[in-house]
Amino acid sequence: MTSHTEAAGVPLDENTIIAERRGKLTAMRANGVAFPNDFRPQHKAAALHLQYGALDTAELEQQAVKVIVAGRMMLKRVMGKASFATIQDASGDKADGRIQLYIAGDLIGVEAHDAFKHYDLGDILGAEGVLFKTKTGELSIKVSALRLITKSLRPLPDKFHGLADQEMKYRQRYVDLIMSEDTRRTFKARTATMSSIRNFMNQHDFMEVETPMLHSIPGGAAAKPFITHHNALDMQMFLRIAPELYLKRLVVGGFERVFEVNRNFRNEGVSPRHNPEFTMMEFYAAYVDYRWLMDFTEAVIRQAAVDAHGTATLTYQGRELDLSKPFQRLTVLEAINKYAPGYATEQLNDTEFLKVELRKFGVKPFATAGLGALQLALFEETAEALLWEPTYIVDYPAEVSPLARASDTVPGITERFELFICGRELANGFSELNDPEDQAARFHAQVAAKDAGDEEAMFYDADYIRALEYGMPPAGGCGIGIDRLVMLITDSPNIRDVILFPHLRRED
């Protein structure tokens, strides 16, 4: 019985409901019992269902199982001398995370039962009693003591529906988690994914480290940074766009296998695939190259799917996705020829043709863009979205890969790959450039590109060059987008579905 007015079937606006609940809280304060913190639950709903759900009434009566539980009241039925309530705790995703309470005046006292009748959906209750089965066979608790632990001042929504409520789910994730089994399951799968990755890295002798999130020079990726100011040091600083240059400093220092689960910040657009704050797992290993990295990255992703989903065969947005098979590998030009056939070899090697062709897609290349950058831009417009099955695009042009080792056999190409699954980039890796003079020249080229208008071009990092001058062993490194990986594993269409608190426009 949420209120007498609601029970009579007359809908109340939210402000009226909140006012009524505040009145109940005021009465609780007057009695000195508001928000107690001395109740300690000892049992979880899911464990009770698992252990006792298959027993019949006689067996339960014989065992006389005493339990102490707590949870949020999600359902309530008042039936004269007896009432039923269903509470939900954190132990399950579906019905096994809920358990029914049977409340009667002859068990807890008439006064306590009358008090329960004025409890509201969303209130957090503590209950003691014994397990039994109802006539319908539902495992329940015959309550002998009941307490209101936390008063909920706001009413729970009946359900979410439509676009407006979709934004409410993101903005008020706490309500979404209360109401949605699917949402709770998604974020448990995210945690399972992270645990799998950490375990996998530890098993392969990688050391987890932490590097700065405030940088004096943004580096490690081609991205526009967020800018802030440090008052005590009186200096401009940047939120991290990638941890790469710091992780490679550690390789210089002798830590030959390192990884970091890192939060990165990029001052870019928001889309179903992009959030300005996102999570990556970036790792570096000495004495390996990009071919080893591809094999290893594939294994990391496959194991994460198995651990979080139960199998490497997924369904994403209605289409099957098989992570158990070896990932295919194509060069940029091979991908264009496979997924956008019709371009002649001469055309794909003609900078003027590529510039004209890209304008048809609404792309205006930078004035400094060379042949490799133009080919990559055409790939992004014609082939990238069609890469459904896991595909490594390899041998990226040097001009768009300022930190990658150049190929020893093909001029202008680097030992770099990007992994695409379901038409979106999931990982980026390469054999590391450990020649300090070559790296310095690449940084200078990036500075020139920035001066020409490329806001995502890199800065010159003199300290990183100094670190390389001490000598970094040959190495390989890769970054895996955790948010996008969880999207695949949980069949989530929007990156906001897998980030607990995604960034949104300010509320009006």
Structure in words:
- It contains 18 helices and 18 strands.
- It is an alpha+beta fold and 508 residues long.
- Strands 6-10-11-18-17-16-15-14 form an eight-stranded mixed beta sheet, with helices on both faces.
- Helix 12 runs parallel beside helix 15.
Write the layout of secondary structure elements.
Blueprint (H helix, E strand, L loop, with lengths): L3 H4 L6 H17 L14 H8 L4 H7 L2 E14 L2 E7 L9 E7 H4 L1 H7 L7 E10 L5 E12 L11 H10 L1 H7 L1 H23 L3 E2 L5 E2 L11 E4 L4 E5 L4 H9 L4 E9 L11 E10 L3 H20 L3 E4 L2 E4 L5 E4 H8 L5 H4 L2 H10 L10 H12 L8 E4 L21 E6 L2 E8 L4 H16 L10 H8 L5 E7 H9 L18
Parallel strand pairs: 3-5, 6-10, 14-15
Antiparallel strand pairs: 1-2, 1-4, 2-3, 4-5, 7-9, 8-9, 10-11, 11-18, 12-13, 15-16, 16-17, 17-18
